[in-house]
Amino acid sequence: MNLVSKIALAGVLAMTASTVNAQNKETETKAAETTLPGVEQDPFIWLEEARSDKSLEWVSDESNRTLAHMAMDPRFDEIQAEILEILDSQDRIPMVSIRPDGLYNFWQDKDNPRGLVRRTTMESYRTDNPEWETVLDVDALAKSEGREWVYKGSTCLPPLERHCMIALSDGGKDATIMREFDMNTGNFVEGGFELAESQGSIEWIDEDTLLVTRNFDETLMTESEYPYTTRLWKRGQSIDDAQEIFRGDRKDVWSGAGLLRDNKGSIHARTAFRGVSFFETENFVEKDGEWLRLNIPLKASLYGIVDGHLLYSTNVDWEVDGTTFPADSLVAVDLEEWKADPNGAKKTLVWAPAERQTKRGGAISGNSLFVSMLDNVVGKVVRIDFDNGKWVTQDVDLPANSSLDIATASSETDEIMFTSNGFLEPTTLFYSDGGKPEALKQSPVRFDSEGMSVEQHEATSKDGTKIPYFIVKPQGMKMDGTTPTLLYGYGGFQVSQLPSYLSVTGKTWLERGGAYVLANLRGGGEFGPGWHQTAMRENKQRTWDDFIAVGEDLIARGFTSPKHLGIQGGSQGGLLVGTFLTQRPDLINAAIVQIPLFDMLRLPLIGRGASWVGEYGDPRIAEERAWIEEYSPYQKIAEGVDYPSPLLWASTADDRTHPSHARKAAAKLKSLGQPYWYFEDMTGGHSGGVDNKQRAKIKAIETVYLMQRLMDSDSK
């Protein structure tokens, strides 16, 4: 499996899907399992039925109450307009992917809220006003078909990338349909490949053959509701008749087969994997008609083909023949030697992280491997080549002290693009065709940052670990505890939280005198796999302790005070906010709980929660339930506690974390007479918005809520 395929599969693993009817049926089935060992009957379990009449009536009443209150604030319309102007701005950088027939961009604005897939030439892209050719108009498609289509990307046949499978979601769910599309004609192929709504992936073998890993029926889904079988599908054949070539196990998180392909499009092997947990994978290669398991760690994966070598990436120390390759390193084998003897090929080190370094993304161009990394939470990009029998690493000449990313790379040439930005520095797009990167485009300034500054500090967590965080200070900030401060965190799944340009937050919050804080908590990936692995499962409380420690440090330093401190996070970050809210409500006066996990004792029975027991543990196992019970926010909401009137929001179409987590939290607060706000949109999915207008509305609700709680004098 090549690097691009691996990244795509990882993305699908973080996504989940099924049809609305299947989702309701499955949810109702799970809701019928009203108890787990040690879990009392839940009076709000009916809210787990995502689209039942009773649930939707409750959602409508709560959402209308919240929106009406926030919209009455005289600041709401102004803030919403400011946000929408930024999101719809015509002068923002149109980020592209480099493909054989041009540069492709997906664009949304007020005239195209669902978006356009469009392309241009490199020559035109260099100008201030590129000429774009529309390839797919998603708004027109949605209107003609009467569906709430949301574009979810395409998978194309290399090297020409003319034949593509377009993924479309109805309402923003992770679930997608897939249809064959001809990029040359700009039309869906009549009678072409088409897959019903599901989650999963496809790979092209040739223009008439696909590898399909999907939820073919309910019996072929894992407990986490991912697929675990792959079929070889030929043009003109019913998918029901397609040959199954790989089968994992129903107990896997998910499983499937793919292709090991080089950057020229040549296929070198069929590969497969079994996700035995969210972070552990058994890898296989087809050898002499049989599936051979690769002798690599469960936390290692195929990374891609570079200069005639197959590369592995490992998240744990890997000992091979007396040599230990450190966690987070890249390891190579000669490709032809590997094809002859997959487990016996000699392994050599390509790259290993220095102290406080970790790799992030990667891209394989026509001739080189590029890896973006963090060096003490500062961005860096290196180019790696096999030259004269050894691996040579060179730094790419990009701005220092910035967040750096690889934006896109050509698989045929040396063309590659990078981005650079910071909290107060708009994004710059750099382009290189083998030489020094040149600044190609720059995003306009979106807010007045004069007098603002960025500082990095460390808080001391409960066990003594130093937790870094950034604070963006508004102009004229006083160290007397009066500054309204928003603390944001995530802290899970080895996901890093990095400085990025605060276009919307800068305009709506910083300009109005608020401060913004970004915490680098254990559980994330800012310092490599170990930073994550030290705060998962039985040690997950360390993440919650880290977030609380940052809040305490902000108050101790005089940056803010409990009356003026608010916290925010989404998904795993919503769980993070929930634990802070229930463990230290005295430290805060606002909490934004976005699309959260919240009822951790029913985690495997709600949405795709079974897939995440690798991060948190499994509440069906007594030993693991014991440590989850210590923090599960839903159960920890208690009578007689003064909670800071949290704002919870979710999406009915979220088929990943499921809206019932947020719903039940709000319902329980209400039952205890606690003040709260709840908002839920029918569409948007886990991303929280299908178009800019919807995104602006949600962000305006959040901002007005923060102003009322942290800026207004009667907020406590």
Beta-strand share of residues: 25-35%
Total number of beta strands: 39
Radius of gyration: 25 Å
- The name of the CATH architecture of the domain at 56-84 and 454-711 is 3-Layer(aba) Sandwich
Structural class: alpha+beta
Across the major sheet, the strand order is 32-33-35-34-36-37-38-39
Helix share, percent: 10-25%
CATH homologous superfamily assignment of the domain at 56-84 and 454-711 = Alpha/Beta hydrolase fold, catalytic domain
The CATH class of the domain at 56-84 and 454-711, by name, is: Alpha Beta
Description:
Residues 1-22 form the signal peptide. Keywords: Hydrolase, Protease, Serine protease, Signal. It is an enzyme of class 3 (hydrolase). With 716 residues, this protein is an alpha+beta fold. Among the domains are: 56-84 and 454-711, Rossmann fold, CATH 3.40.50; 101-158 and 160-198; 353-441, Lipocalin (Beta Barrel). 23% of the residues lie in helices and 33% in strands. It has 16 helices and 39 strands. An 8-stranded mixed β-sheet has the order 32-33-35-34-36-37-38-39, sandwiched between helices. Strands 5, 6, 7, 8 and 9 form a 5-stranded antiparallel β-sheet that branches. A 4-stranded antiparallel β-sheet has the order 1-2-3-4. It is globular. The model is unreliable at 1-33 (pLDDT under 50).
Keywords for this structure?
single chain, 716 residues, alpha+beta, Rossmann fold, Lipocalin, eight-stranded mixed beta sheet, five-stranded antiparallel beta sheet, 39 strands, globular
